[in-house]
């Protein structure tokens, strides 16, 4: 198995990356204390549906360097979180997950940070190449996700949340739309826009400017139909919006 | 004339020599025969175990390609996730509840009456076209549920896919995506004010009907909207591990249960580790029996529009008999696992040739050594002192 990983690492990585990264067994996916992190080649699942790749607060720090990567997310009530960081376009097959497994995260804003020296820096990965999802009480139903949008930063988090950045991809070329709803049963969307034709396997981003949105429950619905067979596609992402960031991080 | 006399003398001498040789050989025939027989017995005894070992079926990695109109299996290890399956109508039975929200945001729930009454719900797309249909999705089958799939012709000549889940750990649940208009017809159910009930569509935020099974089972019959081929399960990188695979359908004939093979076309068993070994083919009249305890991976399963059946590719290690036999001729069972003799030398031509040579050479060498060195049958004791051969003894007798 180790040999296979070595071969995969040695062959896939330079090809995908365009520049060789020396093989280092320390970069392999492994337990790193309170999380698992490293190179983990994953096969294409063949899933034709809409897939959520990242749910972030729309926030970018001016300085690109990041010795420590930090996450901050809001929970309305305590819950178990399935936190995943991976590349939006897999090139180096980086993944971080299994963060504080079996632990319950507290209500309010939850911080988390990890050193980038072990894996991210040797792989020369930047924050903009990474997607983060904090799934709340994960259910087997992958068409209805419940997430806590994550502030992904390295120095100073914002004081206010003014927008969200959701990244999806669709398994096959499709014509898509999106809508954002407030509250649990409100049938009238706050925002409703066409996304147009989206190519299969290519990530696309939905940005919601929410400076004037009230705190509370929201739902992003992405739907449409496959251009191959007209099959309906539907993906919903529920999240809590808390514009004021309380506490010092 | 002298040369004629010499020739005559030579001929007489030669004749006498040959005659003597024949006489002696005939005289020793019993000795030679018994010697040869005993050598043969020794060779057979020595080679019996290697031959038995070489010709008994061994655990074999096989690949089975079949087109059937039905199969059943039990899910092992990992849950199976369905591919999106399009339908124009869905008949649901063995269910407990069907829930959905109307366009007016009113939650609706259809519950089944007692199972003895065979409650069913029929969901039909209002305007069935190539762009308007429902989709079965979010159906996950957890181990150790038993799954039965069958393709049947409906009364209107359309293909229907029968999906039956039994012996699940919990009640199975599925979601049907249907944003467009449809009609619900219930039988022996509660919860709808009228039946059939036209539903103009489902809300964008929740365009699903959630179906919950009953008694750890769920059954659905879907009428497919098109005749195109489609995949049934999501392609899993780690493949789908199943066991208790069966390709039979049962019927009652004069009160007796009769099994029929579900094969629709010729089946193929091939040996991926030994590509030079010819795949085994068998006609659609054959039963295929895989051992119930053997685990097989479903590499591919889908509806084949050309053959009007389910196209399946299985791979796995057959540790017990993989048998086929024509329907009604169970005495003609054939185990299609390989033997060691089949596999030896498949990887290397050198080893193959060497083994072929040794197979002939070893018995010949054993025979020669035995004839030359081993006195298996006690030779007649010499009458005179010193070493006397049987031939010389015979000559003395003469």
Helix fraction bin of chain B = 10-25%
* Number of beta strands of chain A: 17
Mean pLDDT of chain A: 87
Total domains of chain A: 1
Describe the protein.
The complex is a heterodimer of chains A (249) and B (398). Chain A is built from one helix and 17 strands. Chain A is mostly beta strands and 249 residues long. In chain A, the strands form four sheets. In chain A, strands 1, 2, 5, 6, 7 and 9 form a six-stranded antiparallel β-sheet that branches. Chain A is globular, with a radius of gyration of 18 Å. The N and C termini of chain A lie far apart (41 Å). Mean pLDDT of chain A is 87; it is low at 6-18. Chain B has two domains: 70-343, no CATH class; 344-377, no CATH class. Chain B has five helices and 29 strands. Chain B has a 15-stranded antiparallel β-sheet that branches. Chain B has a seven-stranded antiparallel β-sheet with strand order 4-9-13-17-6-7-15, with no helix packed on it. Chain B has a three-stranded antiparallel β-sheet with strand order 25-28-29, with no helix packed on it. In chain B, 27% of the residues are buried. At the A-B interface, strand 16 and strand 17 of A face loops of B.
Q: Briefly, what is this?
A:
With 249 residues, chain A is mainly β. In chain A, 6% of the residues lie in helices and 45% in strands.
Give the tags.
heterodimer, A: 249 residues, mainly beta, Immunoglobulin-like, 6-stranded antiparallel beta sheet, 1 helix, 17 strands, 6% helix, B: alpha+beta, 38% strand
């Amino acid at each position: 198995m180790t040999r296979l990983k070595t071969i995969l690492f040695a062959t896939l990585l330079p090809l995908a990356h365009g520049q060789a990264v020396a093989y280092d067994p320390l970069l392999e996916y492994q337990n790193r204390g309170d999380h698992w992190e490293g190179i983990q080649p994953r096969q294409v699942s063949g899933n034709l549906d809409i897939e959520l790749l990242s749910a972030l607060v729309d926030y970018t720090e001016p300085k690109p360097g990041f010795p420590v990567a930090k996450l901050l997310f809001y929970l309305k009530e305590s819950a178990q979180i399935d936190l995943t960081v991976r590349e939006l376009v897999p090139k180096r097959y980086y993944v971080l997950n299994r963060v504080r497994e079996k632990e319950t995260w507290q209500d309010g804003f939850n911080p988390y940070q990890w050193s980038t020296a072990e894996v991210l820096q040797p792989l020369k990965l930047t924050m903009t190449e990474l997607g983060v999802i904090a799934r709340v009480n994960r259910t087997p139903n992958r068409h209805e996700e419940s997430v806590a949008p994550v502030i992904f930063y390295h120095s100073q988090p914002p004081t206010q949340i003014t927008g969200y950045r959701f990244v999806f991809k669709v398994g096959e070329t499709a014509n898509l739309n999106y809508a954002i709803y407030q509250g649990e049963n409100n049938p009238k969307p706050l925002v409703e826009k066409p996304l147009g034709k989206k190519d299969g396997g290519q990530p696309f981003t939905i940005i919601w400017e929410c400076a004037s949105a009230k705190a509370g429950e929201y739902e992003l619905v992405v739907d449409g139909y496959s251009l191959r067979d007209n099959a309906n596609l539907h993906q919903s992402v529920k999240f809590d919006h808390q514009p004021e960031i309380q506490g010092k991080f | 004339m002298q040369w004629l006399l010499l020739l005559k003398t030579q001929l007489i001498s030669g004749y006498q020599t040959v005659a003597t040789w024949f006489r002696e050989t005939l005289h020793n025939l019993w000795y030679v025969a018994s010697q040869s027989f005993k050598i043969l017995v020794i060779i057979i005894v020595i080679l019996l175990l290697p031959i038995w070992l070489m010709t008994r079926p061994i655990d074999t990695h096989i690949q089975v390609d079949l087109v059937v109109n039905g199969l059943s299996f039990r899910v092992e290890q990992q849950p199976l996730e369905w591919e999106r399956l399009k339908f124009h109508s869905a008949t649901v039975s063995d269910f407990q509840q069907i829930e959905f929200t109307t366009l007016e945001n009113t939650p609706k729930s259809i519950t089944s009456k007692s199972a003895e009454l065979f409650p069913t719900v029929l969901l039909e797309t209002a305007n069935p076209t190539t762009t308007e249909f429902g989709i079965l999705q979010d159906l996950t089958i957890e181990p150790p549920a038993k799954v039965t799939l069958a393709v049947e012709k409906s009364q209107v000549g359309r293909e229907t896919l029968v999906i039956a889940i039994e012996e699940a750990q919990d009640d199975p649940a599925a979601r049907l995506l249907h944003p467009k208009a449809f009609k619900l017809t219930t039988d022996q159910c509660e919860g709808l004010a009228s039946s059939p009930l036209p539903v103009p569509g489902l809300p964008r935020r929740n365009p699903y009907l959630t179906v919950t099974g009953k008694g750890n089972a769920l059954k659905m019959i879907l009428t497919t909207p098109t005749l195109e081929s489609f995949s049934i399960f999501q392609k899993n990188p780690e493949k789908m591990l199943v066991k208790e695979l069966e390709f039979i359908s049962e019927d009652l004939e004069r009160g007796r249960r009769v099994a029929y093979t579900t094969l629709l076309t010729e089946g193929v068993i091939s040996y991926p580790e030994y590509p030079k070994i010819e795949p085994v083919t068998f006609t659609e009249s054959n039963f295929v029996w895989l051992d119930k305890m053997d685990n097989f991976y479903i590499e591919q399963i889908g509806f084949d529009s050309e053959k009007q059946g389910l196209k399946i590719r299985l791979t796995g290690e057959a540790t017990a008999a993989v048998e086929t036999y024509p329907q009604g001729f169970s005495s003609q069972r054939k185990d299609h696992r390989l033997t060691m003799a089949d596999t030896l030398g498949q990887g290397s031509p050198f080893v193959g040739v060497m083994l072929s040579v040794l197979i002939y050479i070893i018995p010949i060498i054993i025979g020669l050594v035995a004839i030359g060195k081993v006195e298996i049958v006690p030779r007649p004791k010499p009458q005179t002192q010193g070493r006397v051969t049987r031939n010389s003894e015979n000559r003395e007798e003469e």
